[in-house]
Amino acid sequence: QKEVEQDPGPLSVPEGAIVSLNCTYSNSAFQYFMWYRQYSRKGPELLMYTYSSGNKEDGRFTAQVDKSSKYISLFIRDSQPSDSATYLCAMSGNTDKLIFGTGTRLQVFP
Amino acid sequence: GAVVSQHPSWVICKSGTSVKIECRSLDFQATTMFWYRQFPKQSLMLMATSNEGSKATYEQGVEKDKFLINHASLTLSTLTVTSAHPEDSSFYICSARREFGTSGGDSYNEQFFGPGTRLTVL
């Protein structure tokens, strides 16, 4: 079993839809949870950073962490074609090492 | 702020040659940098952790003599792929760690990624 599981998609939604992206994990030591956006042939760009459980909102993006279920989510409201990219979840414990999910490819069509 | 650059952005080389990739933190100092490898439609796999002034720490299965890492200063780490072969063709991405302070009593940090280097070995 992988430490971090993420559905690779692709996920295709119409412009304006609410998008839900999820990851599950097995290591209860993870405390820091991140979502990155990666455009084709580019490096990942940090979108959201959450410590421990709870919700965090930034503009159209909301990150949720449920440590009891070992489940994290990223919601994108009013999705735009420019949101089309691969979204990677990542997490770490008390070390610097980030464990990434495989990424979910999102396509928002006009 | 928190910009990380990589050079070159892409490189094509012949089998058997060595290739050096540079990773720079442009507006902050990074005592720790990381090197990742990403194959098409796959996630990032950590290759090694680069610490300024000391030897890099390699992940299991990564040949340290093949992937030479030098963290010469607080803003520069280099990865040299020695005697490259076609199976080394991949997208290599670095990240630099910047400390943010504390949250919930623990110090935490954030990694900022470079734009990646696409290596093609013929």
Explain what you see.
The complex is a heterodimer of chains A (110) and B (122). With 110 residues, chain A is mainly β. Chain A has strands spanning 4-6, 11-14, 19-25, 32-38, 45-51, 54-58, 61-66, 71-76, 85-92, 99-100, 104-109. Chain B is built from no helices and eleven strands. In chain B, strands 2, 4, 5, 6, 9, 10 and 11 form a seven-stranded mixed beta sheet that branches. The radius of gyration of chain B is 14 Å and the shape is globular. The termini of chain B are far apart.
SSE inventory with pairings:
The complex is a heterodimer of chains A (110) and B (122).
Chain A: E1 4-6, E2 11-14, E3 19-25, E4 32-38, E5 45-51, E6 54-58, E7 61-66, E8 71-76, E9 85-92, E10 99-100, E11 104-109
Parallel strand pairs in A: 2-11
Antiparallel strand pairs in A: 1-3, 3-8, 4-5, 4-9, 6-7, 7-8, 9-10, 9-11
Chain B: E1 4-7, E2 10-13, E3 19-25, E4 32-38, E5 44-51, E6 57-58, E7 67-73, E8 76-81, E9 90-103, E10 106-113, E11 117-121
Parallel strand pairs in B: 2-11
Antiparallel strand pairs in B: 1-3, 3-8, 4-5, 4-9, 5-6, 7-8, 9-10, 9-11
Offer a concise description of the structure:
The complex is a heterodimer of chains A (110) and B (122). Chain A has 110 residues and is mostly beta strands.
